[in-house]
Amino acid sequence: MKYKYIAIEGIDGSGKTTIANLLYNELSKKYNKLILMKEPYDKDLSKKIKEIILKEHEKNLDYGYLLALLFTADRSIKNIDLKKYLNDDYIIISDRSIYSSFSYQILYEGIDIEWLKCISKYIIKQHITFVLDIDPKIAMERINSRGKSISSYENIEFLKKVRENFLKLKDLFPEDNIIYINGEEKPEEY
After folding, report:
1. Residue 189: inside a domain
2. Which is higher by pLDDT, 69 or 152?
3. Fewer Cβ neighbours under 10 Å: the N or C end of the chain?
4. CATH of the domain at 122
5. Phi, psi of 117 (to 5 degrees)
């Protein structure tokens, strides 16, 4: 297979987890060496990240730095396993990636894109990224239908800004293989 490290991205409620799982199930019919990863990755860091995101907090520099650094630390831990799997010729599917920080944490007041690029310098980038593009209103309908806790990110105004950032990724990273997909389609139509 040409692409060994595949990421599925998009705003909350876009269907990332569903598509990542479907892709994993489909590829597992053909490939034995296949791993499905999710971000946040590390159990302990994931707990801390979710604790912050689930509570309402100011989108200021302090929280922006904190979350960007926690996500980078989490991806650094993921890097250790990624290197091992890639060296052993596995195909890796990731539910979220480095691009989430460039779409979410960049919205925190004072966070600079060059700083985010600098702290992410050694994070392994995926070979191909599929960004599920969806109207934030539809995403919120999906989120509300889950009946789970809603994070501080899950509101229409914030998701509109995050979506705009996801749509700018190709301009920010022209050398990267980023493909946009209509996330409003039924999963079986991808």
Report:
1. no
2. 69
3. N
4. 3.40.50.300
5. -65, -40
Let me know: does 26 contact 20? Beta carbons within 8 Å: no
In a domain, 28, yes or no: yes
Q: Is the pLDDT of residue 189 over 70?
A: no
Within a domain: 110: yes
CA pair distance 174, 141, nearest whole angstrom:
32
- Contact (CB, 8 A) for 99 and 171: no
**Residue in this structure with the two tokens 């595949």, named with its chain if needed:** 6
Burial of 30 from C-beta contacts in 10 A (0-12 / 13-18 / 19+): exposed
Classify residue 104: in a domain, yes or no.
Answer: yes
Q: Give me 106's structure tokens.
A: 């960049």
Structural domain boundaries, residue 97? 5-183
Q: What is the mean pLDDT of the segment spanning 115-123? A: 97
Q: How many domains does the chain have?
A: 1
pLDDT of residue 45: 95
Closest CA to 154 of 45, 61, 162, 184: 162
Alpha-carbon radius of gyration of the chain: 16
